[in-house]
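User: Um, any thoughts?
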Amino acid sequence: MDAMKIGAVETDRLSLVPLAVEHADEMAEVLSDPALHVFIGGAPHSAQALRSRYERLVAGSPEPSQTWWNWVIRLREEQRLTGTVQATVTAAERGYAAEVAWVVGTPWQGRGIATEAARGLVAWLREQGVRVIRAHVHPDHHASAAVAAAAGLAPTDHWHDGEIRWELPATQSPTGSR
């Protein structure tokens, strides 16, 4: 899975645009609410710190067995960034596996943006041949659990770092991208 082959993913209202360092300034504002870190820890990054982080992400994983795919979420109607989605893809026994995550800035929450973006991401990953798709969700993060469920993932009995593993059932065929 070559990170250079990442492309834009289009859904009804959104464009998932491959992450670029140039997105850091706008994304620092989008992700500036400390409430976004309640379940994942840490604190909002400054534009400069986010730029450094994006430089590392765009450069790709130092692990040859991993591919990092990262997108910013552009709400086309407003012509602005509203969050991110990401997938860490690795080779697995049953083909490729992806660990996915999403975050939408506080002003855009409750509008179905995370759900639409996650559905688009999962559908795109399946089109790329990724067979196993997982997310880890804090048990008290009900909004993120709802996004995972809407994207076709189901909770499992597995826990990792205090979070529940959600996984796309092998027979699931999600929709969401055009």
Summary: Residues 3-167 form a domain with the Aminopeptidase fold (CATH 3.40.630.30). The longest strand covers residues 80-92.
